[in-house]
Amino acid sequence: xxxxxxxxxxxxxxxxxxxxxxxxxxxxxxxxxxxxxxxxxxxxxxxxxxxxxxxxxxxxxxxxxxxxxxxxxxxxxxxxxxxxxxxxxxxxxxxxxxxxxxxxxxxxxxxxxxxxxxxxxxxxxxxxxxxxxxxxxxxxxxxxxxxxxxxxxxxxxxxxxxxxxxxxxxxxxxxxxxxxxxxxxxxxxxxxxxxxxxxxxxxxxxxxxxxxxxxxxxxxxxxxxxxxxxxxxxxxxxxxxxxxxxxxxxxxxxxxxxxxxxxxxxxxxxxxxxxxxxxxxxxxxxxxxxxxxxxxxxxxxxxxxxxxxxxxxxxxxxxxxxxxxxxxxxxxxxxxxxxxxxxxxxxxxxxxxxxxxxxxxxxxxxxxxxxxxxxxxxxxxxxxxxxxxxxxxx
Length: 394
Prior knowledge:
By secondary structure, this protein is an alpha+beta fold. The protein folds into three domains: 2-49; 56-255, 2-Layer Sandwich (Tetrahydropterin Synthase, Chain A); 331-372, no CATH class. It has helices at 2-10, 15-49, 111-114, 127-130, 161-168, 191-209, 214-217, 221-239, 260-329, 331-347, and strands spanning 53-56, 61-67, 70-75, 78-81, 88-94, 98-105, 140-141, 147-158, 186-187, 243-254, 354-357, 366-369. Helix 6 packs across helix 8 and helix 9 crosses helix 10 (331-347). 14% of the residues are buried.
């Protein structure tokens, strides 16, 4: 064996066959190593050129670059390149609108609340459903010790990705691990942030509701919603998470299931009361306007009467001054004239008027009717020289 190997090396018998195999193996190994070296060089070049590059979608995300675990830069748009991991790590933070729904204050079987005391199939709650189970059913306690069930939907947007990442994000897991790509960056998981923001929302609802009563929460939902929203805006500004509250919606506010019929009756009575009050208010306005109109009419009549009386008194005073002046000149003639005027006014309303000329000693009496006869019924004039006796006009 040793002799054969020695002959093969020294060029003994079988040298051509062994040499051919060795040459083929050598060429194959050289080709393999050449291909491997080229592959390594191409991979390294691609890794250095494209492995650390990324494009930022400005509509949905902002990219945070971490260098050895520390914040280095925030990229908001365009194409960027950094040394790839483990030197730099790319974290994609969603900046589009995010929603958080809080069911912490709803009962376990909330279907009855959504359909006002009945299920979607029309069935009524059972005795078990009517009971509130502490620790299982959620509720919020109001300032007057009333219980209220409510569901809130919070919509927010990340406005400061750096602060949002440093305060309430966890990048230990991605939203979808199957799609995780270290060369394209890691989408930050919002699970931690959702938990923190939901707890923040629940805390604000509890503290804001503690000073409310059932009238301002159940019967005035818009005011209740605005109160909680304002408190939440102030709390978010205080904790400074790098987010902005877009909207806060109160989807449902209802008392416990067993009390819903009573609340419905109360709502009906409230509606009737509002209608009666509105009718009374309308009647009050009508009566007030009518009183103002009558008052204005009375005042106008009083003003006209006052003006008329003043004018009459002024006319009487002027007439008295004129009569007094005539009386001063000729007393007798003035008295006769006044007597005649007074007598004429006194007998003016009398229907029949007569002039009686009576003489003593049994002589005849002359009766003369002096009524003014209507012109259309005037009788023919009596002939001259007619006999005596009462002359009576028809």
